[in-house]
Design brief:
Layout (H helix, E strand, L loop, with lengths): L16 H11 L5 H8 L1 H5 L3 H8 L3 H12 L21 E6 L2 E6 L17 H34 L1 H6 L9 H8 L3 H8 L3 E4 L2 E4 L7 E2 L6 E2 H14 L8 H10 L6 H10 L5 H12 L1
Parallel strand pairs: 1-3
Antiparallel strand pairs: 1-2, 3-4, 5-6
Helix pairs in contact: 4-5, 6-8, 8-9, 11-12
Amino acid sequence: MQKIQHIDPPGLFARSLAECLRLQAEDAEVLTEELSCLLDNLPMLARGEFDELAMVCGCSRKDIAAHFATIRGFNPKPGLAFGFDDIGSAAPDLVVSMSGDGIKVDLNRSSLPTITVRDATGLTEADQRMLDAAKSVARAVERRNISTLQIATEIIRRQSEFLRDGPASLKPLTLRDVAKATGLHESTVSRVTAGLRVDTPRGPLGLRDFFSGALATEGDPISTAAVRTRIGAMIEAEDPAHPLSDAEIAARLSDDGIQIARRTVTKYREGLRMPGIAARRRGASSRRT
């Protein structure tokens, strides 16, 4: 079970919501004793018993609120990334285009919901009530479309280097970051981005593909997706006769200012489905013979 739980995205194959969130906290390297205690007592958190949780976990109510904000940035259903919808064949919800002037994000009106309500005269009181209700629904749909475009534009703006240069340029980005920038509630950002498809110059992507956790560096934080890409590139470029160990990869990344533990390198390598040093060494030996 522990081996298959190393498969990306973090939280996949968890046996409970608490375990799913714990795996994501471990992946982001933010799992503390206090956060672990909170995850052990999720029913209390669901009931809003912050004061009681603070007593159980030996911290302040403010700390509990901070930990709550942290786990709200995690994905409680990482398996949805492997749903039955084929993102490559389904019509995109948004279209991203690039030109010399920059990047443009448009709604795909043919796939997003749109309601048109026409006014009428001579209606009965009951018909007028239904017309007013239809107008209310139409306004709600249009507000959602506006929020969708606002959120997507902010995400694409922040990840423009990823679209231009590839996965190694993906920046750390969370639901909380986008919510703060757009002035929308984090739950709204989560709801809008779930399942949305984007047609980009790099092919069809899910809007959630633009999000990534972060690792600390001596400068600005780097996304975990970018680190995975670098690890894969290092292994691809290694001398087959002298493959790199996970510890050596961690050391090289550390030399570049990226703070990462050997066990994290192992997890990311396994997520890339790349064999360990012993298997790669055996493979190189068999090819020579």
